[in-house]
Design a protein that fits this description.
InterPro entries: ARM-like, ARM-type_fold, IFRD, Interferon-rel_develop_reg_C, Interferon-rel_develop_reg_N. The protein is an all-alpha fold. Among the domains are: 47-191 and 204-218, Leucine-rich Repeat Variant; 224-318. The protein has helices at 12-19, 41-58, 64-80, 84-89, 91-104, 107-124, 128-146, 152-169, 173-196, 206-220, 225-235, 248-268, 277-288, 297-316, 336-349, 353-359, 361-366, 377-383, 387-408; strands spanning 322-326, 329-333. The protein has a two-stranded antiparallel ribbon.
């Protein structure tokens, strides 16, 4: 019954000083300094948990602004540090707070709560406890996604959350199919709009359709092969229509989904044949070489880059392998399924993705990285580099970057001085 406590929000500084002081070094050898003070990790952890308890209490505050700030602070903490034991002890309290904020909050608060639900499941990983969380939150998320009166931003955030949480926790095939059907109903509306108008135009619903499509595609990657075949037959001839959308992100989402569907189709049937292949490759080639002047240069560059890869996937069954570095480890992304999964979790975790790849058992299991690599003091010492070496490296990188940029600049844009 006392006055509400004024707890400072969990900021980027907290993440860098408190939560990352003893973990970010694993992702960058240069972050080890030669003469830094030792950190009392136990005291730091206690201080962090004290702050987080305060934020959890504030998710029940009467002020919507306070509740939203508390949710955002918890999101920052969960994305930048592994807090499994802390979360396990308070999972029901956190679930109740998230459920209340999604049900009763306004758009921004609902988005923050849905984002926190994703990170809660990432922290917990797959297991009975996570299934209990999803059983509570799943129906609430589905209701918001299908509610035409809810804000588009809230529906978009809940669609992403629904897909990600289902991907993490669901062993029940019935629940997986039910969630996919919910998302499919949203994606189908994008197809219907295409039939009603000649070409898909951008509307305020497009962001919702993109999130639903990406979440649905993520869940498709864990479906049994017989279900994958059904979905491919149902959607492969409809998806190309979305390539005509005015929205760049929708075109890219549709293109990457097409590449993934072709990859899965060829895995299930080596002799897979697509009837309208010539028309599809023509569309993809046009997007890969698009030079329309009414499009922004940055958008054209991004679109051409993506659709060159999509075209190669559809025509030549090829994928441009990417390498992700985190600490002493390397992970190769060598297929569209892996790329889709990596991009989804990178969007959720942001700058904490590298740390979670090193330390989060669930993510390491998803990407088949094995148990976390434990570095002893001797190994850490060999990873250290001096400040002078670091300075030389940064200086060389800066010069190389400047040269590369100067070559790309358009010399014709030079203008003389006017007096």
């Amino acid at each position: 019954g006392g006055q509400p406590r004024n707890v400072q929000p969990f900021s980027d500084e907290d993440a860098s000083i408190e939560t990352m002081s003893h973990c970010s070094g694993f992702s960058d050898p240069a972050s080890f300094t030669e003469d830094g003070p030792e950190v009392d990790e136990e005291a730091t952890q206690e201080d962090l948990e004290y702050k987080l308890k305060g934020f959890i209490d504030l998710t029940l505050d009467k002020s919507a602004k306070t509740r939203q700030a508390a949710l955002e602070s918890l999101k920052n903490a969960f994305s930048s540090k592994i807090l499994y034991e802390f979360v396990m002890e308070r999972r029901m309290t956190l679930t109740d707070s998230i459920e209340r904020c999604i049900k009763k909050g306004k758009s921004d608060e609902q988005c923050a709560a849905a984002g926190l639900a994703c990170l809660l499941c990432v922290q917990m990983g797959s297991g009975i406890e996570s299934e209990e969380i999803f059983k509570t939150l799943g129906p609430v998320l589905k209701k918001i996604v299908c509610d035409g009166t809810a804000s588009i931003q809230a529906r978009q955030a809940c669609a992403t959350c629904l897909g990600v949480c289902c991907f993490i926790v669901t062993d029940d095939i019935t629940e997986l199919y039910s969630t996919m059907e919910c998302l499919e109903n949203i994606v189908t509306k994008a197809y219907q709009r295409d039939r009603d108008t000649n070409g898909v135009s951008s509307t305020h619903n497009t962001v919702l359709h993109i999130s639903a499509l990406l979440a649905w595609t993520l869940l498709l990657t864990i479906c049994p092969m017989n279900e994958v075949k059904k979905k491919i037959e149902m959607h492969l001839h409809k998806l190309p229509s979305l390539l005509s959308c005015d929205d760049l992100n929708m075109r890219i989402a549709a293109g990457e989904t097409l590449a993934l569907l072709f990859e899965l189709a060829r895995e299930t049937d080596a002799d897979f044949f697509y009837e309208d292949m010539e028309l599809l490759t023509e569309k993809l080639r046009a997007l890969a070489t698009d030079g329309n002047k009414h499009r922004a240069k940055v958008d054209k560059r991004k679109q051409r880059s993506v659709f060159r890869d999509v075209l190669r996937a559809v025509e030549e069954r090829d994928f441009p392998t990417e390498m992700v570095k985190f600490g002493p480890e390397r992970m190769y992304i060598d297929c569209w399924v892996k790329k889709q999964t990596y991009d989804t979790f990178k969007e959720i975790l942001g700058s904490g993705m590298q740390y979670h790849l090193q330390s989060n058992d669930f993510l390491r299991n998803v990407f088949e990285l094995g148990p976390p690599v434990m570095l002893d003091a001797a190994t850490l010492k060999t990873m250290k580099i001096s400040r002078f070496e670091r300075h030389l490296y940064n200086s060389a990188a800066f010069k190389a970057r400047t040269k590369a940029r100067s070559k790309c600049r358009d010399k014709r844009a030079d203008v003389g001085e006017f007096f």
